[in-house]
């Protein structure tokens, strides 16, 4: 799974904190969309928008926003 995030985004930090708190960081590829134009372009290609946090699941589905992502994580990892 890939988590697209911005280092300055409080919603992104909420998701990252949840992931770290549950010890599952190794299940994610983290992409800082501010790090390069390629990263921002990849986010737009996979999700059709430029909003973060965005979690791309293994099947290509994208969840956008801290609430939908954390709800999915809670269902999947608890």
From TrEMBL:
Cited InterPro entries: Glutaredoxin, Glutathione_S-Trfase_N, Thioredoxin-like_sf
The GST N-terminal domain, residue ranges: 1-78
Name this polypeptide is given: Glutaredoxin
Lineage summary: Bacteria, Bacillati, Actinomycetota, Coriobacteriia, Coriobacteriales
């Amino acid at each position: 799974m890939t988590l697209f995030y911005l280092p300055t985004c409080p919603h992104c930090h909420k998701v990252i904190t949840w992931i770290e708190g549950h010890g599952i960081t190794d299940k994610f590829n983290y992409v800082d969309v501010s790090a390069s134009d390629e990263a921002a372009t990849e986010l737009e290609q996979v999700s059709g928008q430029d909003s973060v946090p965005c979690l791309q699941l293994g099947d290509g589905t994208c969840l956008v926003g801290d609430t939908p992502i954390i709800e999915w994580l809670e269902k999947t990892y608890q």
